[in-house]
Amino acid sequence: MSAVQSAERSRPYALSWIMLLGLLTALGPLSIDMYLPALPTMASAFGVSVSAMSNTVPAYFLGLAAGQLFYGPITDRFGRKPPLYFGLGLFIAASIWCALATDLSSLLAARTLQALGGCVGVVVARSAIRDCLSPADSSRAYAMLLLVMGVAPILAPMLGAGLLALSSWNSLFWVLALIGSVCLLLIHFNFKETLAPENRRSLAFIPVLKNYGRLLLDRRFMLPAVAGGCLMGALFVYISASSGLLIGHFGVSPQVFAWLFGANAAGLILLSQLNGRLVQRWSVLKVFQIGTGVQLLGSLVLLVLVISPLASLWTVFSALFVTVAGIGLTAPNSTALALAEQGQQAGLASALLGAMQFSIGLLGGVILHALPLAELTGIAVMMVVLIGLGALVLSRYCLEHSNHKVS
């Protein structure tokens, strides 16, 4: 076997294809993370508290959750490419609205629409991978997707802090509109349809609801999806509270915040690439279990820190680093397992999977702000609860998977 043939077998997809899908998926992290350093500045400009301005983060999560449920059946009916035109166009228009917003209510509405547009890339990226690859190869592709997508949380806060130093907060959203425009051009010229016409499904309202209902009852989908959603939910809790925690609680500057936030994202990237190697040696499920253990360890250490006198910027950061990095081993494998047997309804399943992830993250953020606890304590408690629930659901899936193999 030639070296070229060996490389093709080891990576059964074009790197440029994954990079394009990664860029589409990265619209979400870019839209969230780039403006986190600007939250205190924006709060001052709008005449509201930083806590009130932080509500624009869960507003984006709400749009992401609802939008994915909309795009799922659309992409299964019309293919993966046409919905990208609509979604990216909406993202660009909403980004411009954000830049021109003059009050918090207007910004909240614009952020929700921005998410409704931008989330099309997440649905299409997961669905396109499922269209083309086996479960094991999908896990490796999702890990590569995390690598490309993971650059966004590293660069986005730095870019946001840099823009904030040079210009006003409005410039952040003008840049997002420009990035959306670049994505639209790349899709038009470089993205090839992955869903064959004969595999497309009906868009009738009742059948779509029935298909969603069947998915909700399909334990092969629901158990890994819920487990992965809880584990990913811990990340969204961290994102929602990171600005208040690091800038507000520990008093770091927006520039230092950008470096710390990026370092956590780098840990996620590191383990996501390790995941690609591990699934060649062990099963997707086994690596999923390892990643869950990593996240659980990090969250428990964080909880111990906050109830002891040892909580400092660097000890807390270290525990958060482990917790966030573990997602590099859980996210690709939970997605691969959940979508493995969904066949022609990959778009629908991808949409429900994403909606569940962001809904759990949104719920976690709402509960976090409602808890009568100090910010750091609340973050630790929510992370332990979410990751613990994810571990319990995963253990149930492992038990049923084992019984199925025996029978």
Question: How would you summarize the topology of this molecule?
Answer:
Blueprint: H1 3-10, H2 15-33, H3 39-46, H4 50-53, H5 56-78, H6 82-100, H7 104-118, H8 120-132, H9 135-166, H10 170-190, H11 205-217, H12 219-249, H13 254-281, H14 284-306, H15 313-325, H16 327-339, H17 346-370, H18 375-406
Helix pairs in contact: 2-8, 2-9, 2-10, 5-7, 5-8, 5-17, 6-7, 6-10, 8-9, 8-17, 9-13, 9-16, 12-15, 12-16, 12-17, 12-18, 13-15, 13-16, 14-15, 14-16, 14-18, 17-18
Q: What is the N-to-C order of secondary-structure elements (H for helix, E for strand)? A: HHHHHHHHHHHHHHHHHH
DSSP strand content: under 5%
Based on helices, strands and strand pairing, what is the structural class?
Answer: mainly alpha
Gyration radius (Cα, Å) is 20 Å
Mean pLDDT: 83
- Could you tell me how far the N terminus lies from the C terminus, measured between alpha carbons in angstroms? 38 Å
Low-confidence stretches: 1-10
Number of helices: 18
- Let me know the largest β-sheet: none
What is the subunit organization of this protein? single chain
Number of strands: 0
The share of residues in helices is over 70%
Gross morphology? globular
Keywords:
407 residues, mainly alpha, 0% strand, disordered N terminus
Would you mind describing this structure in some detail?
The chain is mainly α and 407 residues long. The chain is globular, with a radius of gyration of 20 Å. It has 18 helices and no strands.
